[in-house]
Amino acid sequence: MMRSVIRLGGYRLQALNGDRIGRVHDFLFDDRTWTVRYLVLRTGGWLSRRKKLISPVALGEPEWSSRTIPVMLSVKQIKESPDISVDKPVSLQREVELHEYFGWEPYWSVEEGSEERPSGQAGEETQYARDTGELEDADPHLRSVLEILTYKVQASDGKAGRIADLLLEEESWVIRYLVIKTSFWRSAKRVLISPLWMKGVSWQDRRIIIDMPVKMIINSPTYNPSIPFNGDFEARLNEYYGRQRKR
């Protein structure tokens, strides 16, 4: 099942004892795999100018009708978890602290390039990186969903619109499609592009780069957010772009 990231924004998070602990403010995704790694939790009061990060591995089955996502953590665990500044990028060092605090299995591996580096357990690699000071310099490749929703789309022969939403796969939390609004008019057409079809991203210029002409993008099958995304539409989309359907 595909879910709109924008619609997930604002969902309430509910702790183990049933207490509501705040709302989803943002998502952080890995720009190499386009996988959501954390939900950014913001509340009033006790979080102030800090943010708490919750991994999808700690989430229960969302209650779509009440717009609530259960979290398999207590309020105390979340309040005492490492603070993350809202004004700075999340470093790998902070991620390590977070995963060690909650006991989450690390999703990352240390970059290869040293013959002396231990291979095997992720914990051994992380400890090696800590001992050698590599954690402070490592780039965790985390990007804000709220930020990328401001990006423009650059086609091979001109501007093709802007990012209006992202569709993620509910089971894996992988962003499968970017929803592109082809103009700034209220009635503008919306189309889908997979991150796998992009040429790249200019993070500095805040642009998604697609090696296709504008006409090809705007003439692709229209995406209607009020209609559930299904296999038939995905098949049409892949056929139009001449892509192999994701299995």
Describe the structure.
By secondary structure, the chain is of the alpha+beta class. The protein folds into three domains: 1-86, PRC-barrel domain (SH3 type barrels, Roll); 91-139, no CATH class; 149-241, Photosynthetic Reaction Center, Chain H, domain 2, CATH 3.90.50.10. It is 22% helix and 29% strand. It has helices at 5-8, 75-79, 92-102, 122-132, 134-137, 145-148, 214-218, 231-241; strands at residues 2-4, 12-14, 20-30, 35-42, 50-54, 68-70, 84-85, 142-144, 152-155, 158-169, 175-181, 190-193, 200-202, 207-209. The longest helix has 11 residues, at 92-102. The protein is globular. Residues 110-122 have low confidence and may be disordered.
Summarize the structure.
The chain is built from eight helices and 14 strands. It has helices spanning 5-8, 75-79, 92-102, 122-132, 134-137, 145-148, 214-218, 231-241, and strands at residues 2-4, 12-14, 20-30, 35-42, 50-54, 68-70, 84-85, 142-144, 152-155, 158-169, 175-181, 190-193, 200-202, 207-209.
